[in-house]
Design brief:
Strand content: 15-25%
Organism: Promicromonospora iranensis
Number of domains: 3
Largest sheet: 6 strands, mixed
Number of helices: 10
Membrane topology: Multi-pass membrane protein
Order of helices and strands: HHEEHEEEHHHHEHEEHEEHEEE
Strand order of the largest sheet: 11-12-10-9-7-13
Structural class: alpha+beta
Number of strands: 13
Keywords: ATP-binding, Cell membrane, Hydrolase, Kinase, Magnesium, Manganese, Membrane, Nucleotide-binding, Phosphoprotein, Protein phosphatase, Stress response, Transferase, Transmembrane, Transmembrane helix, Two-component regulatory system, Virulence
Shape: rod-shaped
Subcellular location: Cell membrane
Distance between the termini: 83 Å
Pfam families: HAMP (PF00672), HATPase_c (PF02518), HisKA (PF00512)
Length: about 475
């Protein structure tokens, strides 16, 4: 038996979920009004029935007292009984011997009950009996008088309550219909901003026009929803603009190395097909050409890796962990030997714990060392220092090069930006941009200044993690082999 009930409940739930919000609000409003009308009808019916019952009982008591007074004067056997009016009140006299008298032409009342008989015998002064359980449905009041009792009865009449019930039912139906119409109108008015919002969202989805902001209208939750969607559209516009710039810049940066690589490869293929490769290119020229090809392939590989990092943005599957930034710096310096030719790196790092992503931080430090290695003279090492300063981990990388011009400082972290003096050096102009993104993702700050040796000093401040460390310091020189 529970399975069909469960299936019916699930079907009802699915049907309800498929209804529109406007229909749901209409049904809820109509149902609420119907429940309120039903409860009001129940309470009013009980109150009306109680009032009618009290009024009928009071009238019976009053009539009984009048008849009892007459009986005391004339005697129960001789008292003149009021004639039957044809409807309404009925009277009866119970004589001391248990017999009864009734007016001529009056319908027969139910037999005298045992409790009424005891009243006539003097067991109690009066008795009110309800005929709800009787077939005849009378309300009978018995009052002791002159050794017997008098009774006044009234047939139970449910017509006022029934008429009231039909009236309330009609009013309830009108209220339910009116509530449904009002609920529909309120839902239409209240959901009008959402309808316009939906239409605007559909228009944006069809036209792909992210510049069309949705008009800010309504109040409260509707306004907050519209503002949230406009903020989302603004974020999408920024993301699309950033993607467009990235593609345009990548296209521009890839053209030169790809063109050079293609020309060199085509030259080798053409000479090889002619069989003049050995005669046209001496061993020294061939070695130089192959070295150029290797350098161009390496440059393209670096550019592709950096473009991939930038395209990912802040999206990464790498989890955040508490780590010793000194280990990251040492590992990055070790990897730099394959990136920076003919340069030395001196380390002066202290164990400092931070919360971050190891690979991202390692890439940022590697890019800093790589950038410094391009500018430092062959006899001047790149100096890398790491220390704890207050609640921050401070990383400094400086070189002995010419430094960064003041006009280039504001744009040094822009994508693909390269100063005029750096045009002839290898690189894509993405390294420091990646550093900026990684530092921002770790709630840090990166700044540019001039070092004491006259070169560039890049400083990274990261929030230190609350973890005890041994305070060990590593000082040394990492010699990078000549390539």
């Amino acid at each position: 038996m529970s399975r069909p009930a469960g299936r019916g409940s699930r079907r009802l739930t699915r049907w309800w979920r498929r209804r529109s919000l406007r229909t749901r609000l209409t049904v809820i409003a109509a149902t609420a009004i119907a429940v309120c009308v039903f409860l009001a009808f129940q309470v009013a019916s009980e109150l009306l029935e109680s009032e009618l019952q009290d009024a009928a009982e009071d009238q019976l008591r009053a009539d009984s007292r009048v008849l009892a007074t007459d009986a005391e004067r004339a005697g129960l056997a001789q008292v003149q009984l009021p004639p039957y009016p044809g409807s309404g009140r009925l009277v009866r006299v119970i004589l001391p011997d248990g017999s009864t008298r009734t007016p001529a032409g009056q319908p027969a009342l139910p037999p005298v009950s045992e409790r009424a008989g005891r009243v006539a015998q003097g067991a109690s002064a009066d008795l009110m009996e309800s005929g709800d359980s009787d077939d005849d449905g009378y309300l009978v009041y018995t009052l002791r008088a002159d050794g017997g009792a008098v009774q006044v009865a009234r047939a139970a009449d449910d017509r006022p309550v029934n008429q009231f019930g039909w009236g309330m039912l009609l009013i309830g139906l009108l209220c339910v219909v009116g509530g449904a119409l009002v609920g529909r109108a309120v839902a239409r008015t209240g959901l009008a901003p959402i309808d316009r919002l939906t239409a605007a969202a559909v228009r944006v989805a069809h036209t792909r026009d992210l510049d069309a902001d949705i008009p800010d209208e309504g109040g409260g939750e509707i306004r907050r929803l519209i503002q949230a969607i406009n903020d989302m559209l603004a974020a999408l516009r920024d993301s699309r603009r950033a993607q467009r710039l990235l593609v345009e810049d990548a296209d521009h940066e890839l053209k030169t190395p790809l063109t050079s690589l293609r020309l060199n490869v085509e030259l080798l293929i053409r000479l090889d097909r002619r069989g003049t490769l050995d005669s046209a290119l001496p061993a020294e020229s061939r070695t130089r050409l192959l070295n150029d090809l290797g350098a161009q392939v390496a440059e393209l590989s670096t550019l592709a890796a950096e473009l991939t990092d930038l395209a990912r943005g802040d999206v990464s599957d790498e989890s955040t962990e508490v780590l010793d930034l000194a280990d990251v710096v040492v590992a990055a310096a070790a990897r730099a030997r394959s990136r920076v030719p003919d340069i030395e790196v001196t380390l002066d790092v202290t164990s400092v714990w931070v919360s971050g992503r190891p690979a991202g931080l390692r890439r940022a430090v590697l890019n800093l060392i790589d950038n410094a290695g391009k500018w430092s003279p062959a006899d001047q090492p790149v100096q890398v220092r790491l220390r704890a300063e207050g609640a921050s981990a401070v990383l400094e990388v400086d070189d002995a090069g010419p430094g960064i011009d003041a006009v280039d400082v504001p744009r040094v972290f822009d994508r693909f930006y390269r100063a005029d003096s750096a045009r002839a050096l290898p690189g894509s102009g993405l390294g420091l941009s990646i550093v900026q993104r990684v530092v921002d993702a770790h709630d840090g700050r990166v700044t540019v200044a001039r070092s004491a040796r006259g070169g560039a000093l890049l400083r990274v401040d990261l929030p230190a993690a609350a973890r005890d460390s041994s305070g060990e310091t590593y000082r040394g020189t990492t010699s990078l082999p000549r390539l």
